[in-house]
Amino acid sequence: MVATKNGSTLLAYWYYRWHNLSTVRPLRTSHPTQSPPYLQSSSHGNQFYPIRTRLLTRPLLVLTSFPAMIINMIGLSGSYVGATVTMMASAPSGEEGIVGAVLYTTFQVGSTLGIAVAAAISLGVNAHLPVDAASQFTGYAASLWSSVAMHGVMVVISILFVRN
């Protein structure tokens, strides 16, 4: 099977067959020049391709949000170290344990929300794009820049709330 314009190959066929076992359509086209239904996206309105599922969308969206999650955790660790040093240096004596516990809890909540936000941004941007690699990169870029912005805001907030 030859690769099509959106990079689909034999993997696309087997993904289509596996995830649509109850709704598999005949592997034929309505016109001799059309691609088989498993190589078409649901936006083309093909009568043989189920509208409820898009070709390879879920795995590609997970793969595009994964690098943003890695960047999110790397940025979070750098921000965590910087904010912890700053907060502990200015904490009143005897209160370092409470400050550290509150800071650690907020960073854990922030990292969980950050991963969820990065995945939601990537999924939201890529949901209406074609499934080729160049188009799916848009969601990765959006989640990357949102992660960078979230870490910048977190560092600014950490610095603003440190009072001597």
Attribute tags:
164 residues, mainly alpha, 4 helices, 63% helix, elongated, disordered N terminus, transmembrane, membrane, MFS_trans_sf, transmembrane helix
Structure description:
InterPro entries: MFS_trans_sf. Keywords: Membrane, Transmembrane, Transmembrane helix. The chain crosses the membrane at residues 60-81, 101-125, 137-162. The protein is mainly alpha-helical. Helix content is 63%, strand content 0%. It has helices at 10-19, 57-90, 96-126, 133-160. The longest helix has 34 residues, at 57-90. It is elongated.
Write the layout of secondary structure elements.
Blueprint: H1 10-19, H2 57-90, H3 96-126, H4 133-160
Helix pairs in contact: 2-3, 2-4, 3-4
Transmembrane segments: 60-81, 101-125, 137-162
Keywords: Membrane, Transmembrane, Transmembrane helix
InterPro entries: MFS_trans_sf
